[in-house]
Amino acid sequence: MVMASFKAAYKETLRGALQKAMFNFVLTDPRIQDNPIVYASDGFLEMTGYTAEEVLGRNCRFLQGPATNRRTIIEIRDAIREERACQVSILNYTKQGKPFWNLFHMAPVYSKEDGRVVHFVGVQTPINSSIDGDSLASAMECFCSSASQNLSVSTDPVDTSKHRQSTNFDEDCCEVGEADKDRAKTSVHTLLSELTNKCKGAGVTETRCTTVSAGPSGERVICSSLMLSLTKVQQSFVLANPHLSDNPIVHASDMFLRLTGYSREEVVGRNCRFLQGPETDRRAVQLIGECIRAGKSCTVKLLNYRKDKTPFWNLLHIAPVRSSSGKVAFYVGVQLDAASVDEPCHAGTETSPHIKQLGAVGAVRVAVRSLQGEGLRRVHKSQ
């Protein structure tokens, strides 16, 4: 998946162009669990002392150490959840355990086709900082952002004594000059230019298209963090956004696609009525509409049709999903093929169909409420 992530989005000529870049950077894929690195520049490898094999497929947290500021880590995580750029100074560690100040500038890369985040670009600009204490300063090693500098790439195990020595570092004492900040931004823009010029298919862009994203209360594309959480719900369900015209589907589970025979591209962006057919009970459809307008849950049994036009009885449960502010952010619809439902469900036997549906609704609500705003962002709790 790591190798395919890069190859699917960009032309092979991009690798040669990236190898010429005179700064340190990585590409990560938030669509893969744990947002792993899918490309690391030679400069990044030289700076950190790791090999490509040790880096690819891993989350960047391996650069953190005992003195890394946890608040800074949360700030980066929030930017990833909210799919926005951020710039922070952070204390990182080489493979050999040596600490160094890193001006980290991260920016999302969007798909031109549907506005989803394809990758994150992360540029690491090592910076000099005035740190009190000769013993601490001696443990530091100055790194140049130029990939051409000769730095040792050791395969020795981490020197834990250096980690212990660095625990007195205070990240607040790191002073970042405007020149470093500007250099980091310029590096990111240079990389984004290369990515957009050497991409495949519809292409990528550094700005999410406004015709794809409907704004804070009506995203046509749910964020990658929520997407990964929803993929863990192993039931047939869809997530619809009532803030958009015609309440379209913004996420469909794999089990829903298997149940109906449609592809994800054929489902996302459409109202669920495409499952209806000539024999679908209009009263059941009317009940669904009334409950959605009232912000209530409902359970109905109605005749739906697969892509190949074969009918099936759908035991459908619909429920509102509220954001952390209490407003309805989405509606979740959980489907069960009535033919596969054993009724009645006797005590002590398998969990009843309705309980399974409520479990799926609960899992979706937990995923959404862990994010702020309209269910798309992390909740910041006051101290």
From TrEMBL:
Coiled-coil residue windows: none
GO MF annotations in UniProt: photoreceptor activity
Keyword Flavoprotein: yes
Classification via SUPFAM superfamilies: PYP-like sensor domain (PAS domain) (SSF55785)
Annotated PAS domain residues: 10-83, 246-295
PAC domain segment(s): 296-350
Identification of the protein by name: Putative LOV domain-containing protein
GO CC terms: nucleus
GO biological process, one term: response to blue light
Database matches in PANTHER family: PROTEIN TWIN LOV 1
InterPro entries noted in UniProt: PAC (IPR001610), PAS (IPR000014), PAS-assoc_C (IPR000700), PAS-like_dom_sf (IPR035965)
UniProt keywords, alphabetically: Chromophore, Flavoprotein, FMN, Photoreceptor protein, Receptor, Sensory transduction
A Pfam cross-reference name: PAS_9
